[in-house]
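Sample pair:
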Amino acid sequence: PGASHTLEVTWAELVRQLVPSAERVRFTSSGTEATLMAVRLARLVTGRTKIIKFAGHFHGWHDAVMPAPEPPHPESWTVPGIPPAVAAETIVVPPNDRDALQSAIEKYRPAAVIHEGNGSRWGTVPAPPEFLRFIREITAATGTVFILDEVITGFRVAPGGFQSLCGIVPDLTTLAKVLAGGLPGGCLAGRADILDALAFDNRWGRKMKHPGTFNANPVSAAAGIAMLEQVRTGQPCEHANAAARQLRSRLNALFDDLGARCVAYGQFSAVKILPEYDGPRPDGDAFIPYQNDWRKLDRRFDPTLTHAFRCALLLNGVDWMGLGGTTTAAHTEDDIEQTVLAFANAIDLLREDGFAI
């Protein structure tokens, strides 16, 4: 019954073929809905209520994951509109901190640990693969559901997502963005026994309701199939990643030439700009400023600077989201050249306006 169609089956099969953890797939209309479903299922199957997340990681805007999505820390850990009793169910720990995570799991016995792809907001604070492997080990040992949020990294860093590069299989994986080829759409993929809680007469004795007018709608499914057919070749990911490596290198050379207090860093197809930087200059693409100290990387900068910076780039034909950008399979050598020139002109404009950059 309902508006089921063959495209959703084809779409789901592509997800299963590409994503290591995808035993079963359930489509949603967004990434936020996917993480909401993951948290609720984790609570249902474990009988526990608390969720552990990492400071600076963004998983959508529902109550269970909204605390601590961005700096300033710890001020952002209290979110307007979320009752204290609800917020108390979310435990925030520092990113990449094994001891803090282990202590929190032992103290709170959470239903789940949720981690954003390769780290805070598309790798602002990069997460080493060995930390993801540690999460997998400790959650498996404690009966805790491991949710890997690959809404950004899924099908972008590699056809199989960040988990395929780390050599891990999380219990649940959330996906969106690339998944639907630029149209609205998300999904939860993972262990069949956990997603069985969505079925009638399931092994858990309780069914999680999941209505939704546009879940797996045929337009998004068609776009998603077309996108994943391209992604499965590996070429789009390789091209986007290579373009970002080149852009990071070119920008750092530009910053050196202009004596700018900035550094570009990032992983895969992400390009992060860190202003007010006076540390060592990059010695290669693997360079991470401040030895990946999350409090120095994930901090709030002067909003007048970031706003002026974006406006200056827009005046030069480049739309750069705040202090971070992403390359795609569509970007060309000419796009990279235009972006570097735009940064050079933007720095001149900012200095003319009195910004110490």
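The CA atoms of residues 135 and 232 lie 27 Å apart.
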